[in-house]
Amino acid sequence: MNTADDTDRIERSIVVNAPRERVWRALSNAEDFGTWFGANLKGQTFAPGQRARGPITFAGYEHMSFDALIERIEPQVLLSYRWHPYPIDATVDYTKEQPTLVTFTLKDAPGNGTILTVVESGFDQVPAHRRVEALRMNSRGWDGQLNNIARHVAA
Fold first, then answer.
1. What is the pLDDT of residues 46-67, one digit of tens each?
2. Prediction pTM value
3. Which of 25, 36, 40, 92 sits at 20 to 30 Å (Cα–Cα) from 114?
4. Helices of type H across the chain
């Protein structure tokens, strides 16, 4: 979890009541990812060096897009991508900013469950005028997204 002094990263973990293979599929299949994350990624795949883009489907955020550059994929262990955190203002060109790194890792948990951890790091490189808000909003967002994937794989 974050501490008051931690301005560069968000870290969250959840024990998901599903086998690792199922959680991995929900993370690594772009369309499945989009379903629980709230982005339309139909027809796309996640592969290192490839960009995945699609409109956000959550009410109130439809003007935003999921736009990530896939960095690493280690089957059933790790998936990471880079993106621009909380790109809420359509008039801003976020491509001029350094993106943060989002890393999901999977570990086995007792009872055929999976420990899913997400770490988003690099907030210290976000421009100062929006750093605190991006960290706050993404911190809240990851709390919700881990619950979303847990519900998704349990269904």
1. 999 999 999 999 888 888 899 9
2. 0.94
3. 40
4. 20-28, 30-37, 128-154
